[in-house]
Amino acid sequence: APSxxxxxxxxxxSQGVVESNHPxxxxxxxxxxxxxxxxxxxxxxxxxxxxxxxxxxxxxxxTTTNRPMSITVNGGAAVNQDFPGTxxxxxxxxxxxxxxxxxxxxxxxxxxxTANGGxxxxxxSVTGPGDTEKxxx
Length: 137
Ligand code: GCU
Description:
mainly beta, five-stranded antiparallel sheet, globular
């Protein structure tokens, strides 16, 4: 199967708003995290089988300051992931995290770790064993 995309604008947003004023996003928009520690986006991710999967967060950060976020799966141990400047709010890149998912539904939450909030978040793409990755778009 191909990797599965989950749009941030369709996820559960805490302290953030859906916007579409910077081009290059997929779907209908992106999430602009509030500029506070703890703003978050939580995705419900379905996995066919338990095991390691690649979580790719597509983001833009038009500042020159890293906006690290804490990534948790099913409320487990937090992994700190960098979301560095991408050069412009309309320039999107992907940051990859490997995580172990359960078979069935999983919650993947990305929580801003600094008072700057998170980057603008477009989507989460999940690639499991045997999945083919789609071209970056
Ligand atoms: C600007 C930009 C937003 C971004 C914000 C931020 O306002 O237009 O898209 O989210 O900066 O610094 O978080």
